[in-house]
Amino acid sequence: MRPLLLLALAACANAASTPPDAAPSADRIPVTIETEGGPVRFEAEIADTDALRQKGLMYRTSMEDGHGMIFLFAEEQQQSFWMKNTLIPLDMIFIRADRTILGIVENAEPETTSPRFVPGVSQFVLEINGGLAKKRGLKAGQTVKFYAPIPAP
């Protein structure tokens, strides 16, 4: 398990030093959601620092289906995201500390600054291409599995 943690940390360090229009890091972690139709897997970049969380998926003109970004926070709190400088529609999956889906914002409109959130507290947020949550049967209450170091408070 230690090599995975080092690999994930190295990916974050590399992502922070790339220009906004550069290709995303090839280093990802698997995120699996248990749905009624079976497990659904995404390969997600990690956003676990303030700088990485603020940049998110900004300036990207596309993202492969089955890829995404997982935002990791030290504690559960009300999370709110915007789409400033984000060029593609996204589904935002808000995940509680117990790793169940709290709720989903579907097809967030690109290049807007209005807040996107679901009522309640979450500790993680998975962003995927807009429309995939519905297409893959993702719903509130489903279990999410991934292994990544949780940021310190």
Task: Provide tags for this entry.
153 residues, alpha+beta, Jelly Rolls, seven-stranded mixed sheet, 3 helices, 7 strands, globular
Report on this model:
The protein has 153 residues and is an alpha+beta fold. It contains three helices and seven strands, in the order H-E-E-H-E-E-E-E-H-E. It has a single domain, classed as Protein of unknown function DUF192 (Jelly Rolls). 16% of the residues lie in helices and 34% in strands. It has a seven-stranded mixed beta sheet with strand order 5-4-6-3-2-1-7. It starts with a helix and ends in an 8-residue tail after the last strand. The N terminus is likely disordered.
Q: Count the DSSP helices.
A: 3
Largest sheet: 7 strands, mixed
- Summing up helix and strand content along with how strands pair, one would put the structural category as alpha+beta
Q: Going across the major beta sheet, what is the strand order? A: 5-4-6-3-2-1-7
Alpha-carbon distance between the two ends = 22 Å
Query: Using only CA atoms, what is the Rg?
Result: 14 Å
- Helix amount: 10-25%
Low-confidence stretches are 1-26
* Oligomeric description of these chains: single chain
CATH superfamily: Protein of unknown function DUF192
* SSE series: HEEHEEEEHE
Number of domains: 1
